[in-house]
Design brief:
This protein is α+β, with helices and mostly antiparallel strands. It has 7 helices and 27 strands. 16% of the residues lie in helices and 23% in strands. Strands 1, 2, 3, 4, 5 and 6 form a 6-stranded antiparallel β-sheet that branches. A 5-stranded antiparallel β-sheet has the order 18-19-20-21-23, sandwiched between helices. The protein has a 4-stranded antiparallel β-sheet with strand order 10-11-27-26. A hairpin with a 2-residue loop joins strand 26 and strand 27 (511-517). Helix 3 packs across helix 4 (448-467), helix 4 crosses helix 6 (492-501) and helix 4 (448-467) packs across helix 7. Residues 173-184, 204-215 have a biased composition (Polar residues). Belongs to the MYST (SAS/MOZ) family. Keywords: Acetylation, Acyltransferase, Chromosome, DNA damage, DNA repair, Metal-binding, Nucleus, Transcription, Transcription regulation, Transferase, Zinc, Zinc-finger. The active site is at 443 (proton donor/acceptor).
């Protein structure tokens, strides 16, 4: 899966669909009703005190996943309902509101949701022993976004049975290959169709959804023959409490291949307390399948060059006297300034690749492959100083992808987030696709942070193309969505989704037009001024391989 490359949201920020927050300071009463056995058990739900990003107390509803006793003091591992799992934590008895506790009705059996293979276990049925009065909190959008464009138009001639873009006429749906004509004016830029496109049969074009500046969604033409649902971009895939929809058939390839052995309560809990990697100490967000004997350690020590793990600082020091690596194994295919990229074959460098996956799983929720690294290539980004090449982030990709994925998993390590490295990783993945002569898209589902980064990259890249068009012979410049896709190597579906997400497509006088408002232009220019790190194609030394002609990876 394609994962995290954006900054960590504030501790108190809700995921979409925020419900179940109990405002006010309920007092934890030790004499409140408990289970028939007289104790709080796993599966209970109750409000838990926590601090939000504004340093204010709040009481969101949480589920008890585990209970442990340390020196006679009980600790409870809680998952905040509708929050991301990376906010899960151990809490003391004093932070629990026992007056509003819900007990599970069935404790022994936890059937899978929908009864389908590959579904994660659902929470047990529960009975409410006390009134649960929770005030739903209003979800407020946070962070800055580009200004909503005024108008942009596209003309398309397609069969009437195709679904139209919301806000347009039903008989004028959007096409991915229609010709666009930007009109450079003082306040608006208009993109206009000059020739009809080849119609796409409606029965071979399913739709995907992509959120549009809030909760509204728009239908988008998708590529036929896709094996997986493509609407994962528009939904929050990180919430473990979401049960909407029926899961699609499990994939047999990629980083999200179904692994039912990990569908249990253990994998819902962080098992590593802290990781020391070079000069940084990292707090993991999710479960990672490190050996069981290492999960009880206060700190797990990793060699920052080969990523091997040790039990103590002494073990790490002894390892460093024997480890002669000062950079990731594999071939260095890019270097500019202090930034380098190394290409690593998952079969030739199996030990390093497996250790990289174990580290990455601490920060990626959906990743389920850790040891079968043979079908993958890993591209590790490093920052160089006098001590060596220090890992900043990485992305992986399948050697052979039948679904045009150019990224399987992608991660910027937390110490390097909010510094532009995430977009640099994404840009590098598309630069490789350009050399390969292909269009690509990240493996779905994207995490919430990964989705934000990809949306931002797609928006900036496409706007950069549209604003750079120049007129010839006094005529409006022309470009098609296919041409945008070929120039950027961004898949056509992602191009269309981004145009709709930015609200650039409108229906005007019987045609679809694209219009760039001054707000969009100014916002884009300000964003590009902050984007100092860019990939220089002249510094890339990469020769793609045809893995289909090889007997073995």
């Amino acid at each position: 899966m394609a994962e995290v490359v954006s900054p960590v949201p504030g501790a108190g920020r809700r995921e979409p669909g925020e419900v179940g927050r109990a405002r006010g300071p309920p007092v934890a009463d030790p004499g409140a009703a408990l289970s028939p056995q007289g104790e709080i058990i796993e599966g209970c739900r109750l409000p838990v005190l926590r601090r939000n990003q504004d340093n204010e107390d709040e009481w969101p509803l949480a589920e008890i996943l585990s209970v442990k006793d340390i020196s006679g003091r009980k600790l409870f591992y809680v998952h905040y309902i509708d929050f991301n799992k990376r906010l899960d934590e151990w809490v003391t008895h004093e932070r629990l509101d026992l007056k509003k506790i819900q007990f599970p009705k069935k404790e022994a059996k936890t059937p899978t949701k929908n009864g389908l293979p590959g579904s994660r276990p659902g929470s047990p049925e529960r009975e409410v022993t006390l009134d649960l009065s929770l005030q739903p909190a209003s979800a407020q959008a946070s962070g800055k976004t580009l200004p909503i464009p005024v108008q942009i138009t596209l003309r398309f001639n397609l069969p009437k049975e195709r679904e139209a873009i919301p806000g347009g006429e039903p008989d004028q749906p959007l096409s991915s290959s229609s010709c666009l004509q930007p009109n450079h004016r003082s306040t608006k830029r208009k993109v206009e169709v000059v020739s009809p496109a080849t119609p796409v049969p409606s029965e071979t074009a399913p739709t995907s959804v992509f959120p549009q500046n809030g909760s509204a969604r728009r239908a988008v033409a998708a590529q036929p023959g896709r094996k997986r649902k493509s609407n994962c971009l528009g939904t929050d895939e990180d919430s473990q409490d979401s049960s909407d929809g029926i899961p699609s058939a499990p994939r047999m390839t990629g980083s999200l291949v179904s692994d039912r052995s990990h569908d249990d309560i253990v994998t819902r809990m962080k098992n590593i307390e802290c990781i020391e990697l070079g000069r940084h100490r990292l707090k993991p967000w999710y479960f990672s399948p490190y050996p069981q004997e290492l999960t009880t350690l206060p700190v797990l020590y990793l060699c920052e060059f080969c990523l091997k793990y040790g039990r103590s600082l002494k073990c790490l020091q002894r390892h460093l006297t024997k480890c002669d690596l000062r950079h990731p194994p594999g071939n260095e295919i890019y270097r500019k300034g202090t930034i380098s990229f190394f290409e690593i074959d998952g079969r030739k460098n199996k030990s390093y690749s497996q250790n990289l996956c174990l580290l990455a799983k601490c920060f990626l929720d959906h990743k389920t492959l850790y040891y079968d690294t043979d079908p993958f290539l890993f591209y590790v980004m490093t920052e160089y100083d006098c001590k060596g090449f220090h890992i900043v982030g990485y992305f992986s990709k399948e050697k052979e992808s039948t679904e045009d994925y150019n990224v399987a998993c992608i991660l910027t390590l937390p110490p390097y987030q909010r510094r532009g490295y995430g977009k640099l990783l994404i840009e590098f993945s598309y630069e490789l696709s350009k050399v390969e002569g292909k269009t690509g898209t990240p493996e779905k589902p994207l995490s919430d942070l990964g989705l934000l980064s990809y949306r931002s990259y797609w928006s900036q890249t496409i706007l950069e193309i549209l604003m750079g068009l120049k007129s010839e012979s006094g005529e409006r410049p022309q470009i098609t969505i296919n041409e945008i896709s070929e120039i950027t190597s961004i898949k056509k579906e992602d191009v269309i989704s981004t145009l709709q997400y930015l609200n650039l497509i409108n229906y005007y006088k019987g045609q679809y037009i694209l219009t760039l408002s001054e707000d969009i232009v100014d916002g884009h220019e300000r964003a590009m001024l902050k984007r100092l790190l860019r990939i220089d194609s002249k510094c890339l030394h990469f020769t793609p391989k045809d893995w289909s002609k090889r007997g073995k990876w």
